[in-house]
Specification:
- This protein is α/β, with parallel strands linked by helices and 444 residues long.
- The chain has two domains: 106 residues, Roll (Urease, subunit C, domain 1); 305 residues, TIM Barrel (Alpha-Beta Barrel), CATH 3.20.20.140.
- Helix 7 runs parallel beside helix 8 and helix 11 packs across helix 12.
- The mean pLDDT is 96.
Amino acid sequence: MAEILLKSAQTVLTMDDDRRELAQADILIRDGVIADIGTGLATTGETVSATGCVVTPGLVNTHHHLYQTLTRAVPGGQDALLFGWLQTLYPIWARFGPEEMFVSAQIGLAELALSGCTLSSDHLYLYPNGARLDDTIAAAQEIGLRFHPTRGAMSIGESDGGLPPDSLVEREADILNDCIRVADAFHDPAEGAMLRIGFAPCSPFSVSRDLMRDAAILARDKGVMLHTHLAENDEDIAYSEASFGCRPGQYAEDLGWTGPDVWHAHCVKLDGREIDLFARSRTGVAHCPCSNCRLGSGIAPVRAMRDAGVPVGLGVDGSASNDAGNLMLEARQAMLLQRVANGADAMSAREALEIATRGGADILGRPDCGRLAPGKRADIAIWDVSGIETAGSWDPAALLLAGPTRVRHLFVEGRQVVRDGQIATIDLPRVIERQNRLARALVA
């Protein structure tokens, strides 16, 4: 049996059911699973020093658009609200193909890994020029992250009153057929799965009510989860009320889009009744604070959601609306925004880190991830707290107040993905050069 011993961590933040914090502790990994946590552990396998480090569960990213790493800081979209930003970028994305999807996903996943992320979802809702969900899946397999891609879709183009150009929408029958294909080909429901699939019509303003309803029925037949954007900003609310005669929460409930197998991105503008609905139904929310700031969407009522019992995780969102994909910075931003909105005691550094770990894992239906305990998957982030970021800190375990935002080591299913602060699974400089070449071609 393959064993790795993580030795002598300064602090282990387990995020287990008791939220234990262990000093000078070891973690024994065996065959991709945590075998033991304690002091004085031994192994005949590899030993990795965690001296001077804080160890946490790997972070979990519950909302992303990996293809967007090719369109960061695009002029014309830098200072726009959501709808204007989309209308600027849709024509650029229409020129993508399989190579752009694959390389941009490699870059996005590598960036996440360096920030301590071990499990990421992805929402891919456009498929120009022969691109498929398979392209991003191949990228995740090369990087080595645990992956939960969702087969997104847009079916209502500009000529039918929708937001996206007609060239980026698909026939709804084709969408459902491809959902069946990717679920049958890739979805692994087993504990410890490296790859699971979800279905994710893009948003209420880019698909029909029929597709939303049919996707929900199909997802439950296939045993996969559901994901979409909801209540992201004031424009989103106005569109729902004008087009459907109801708020987004009612729209979601009417179409079967509530329950523990559903998570919605953003939810910045949920009102009290919608928060109660999500709490009762255990519907999850992917909170994307940096993107919400960048697009001027507002501050999501995360404190109210958490207090009501709504499951909340974190998402970096697309790199065209965030411009970064650092999940540790996202967790810090989540903490700071709740303090801005509700006071300095509204969210602690440890609560924000919990949302970024077990909170996200639970939303994605992965209680086997997001916490450090015997029997859980060996998805582990090791943070060096001997550097300048933590110098003078009285509480090195309060990583979001004073700590590094790049991991020293990262393990996924017991395999090392980041070693000494560098991606260990791909030639990252070569991929960065390829990414920049593709971006220059899009600019030209």
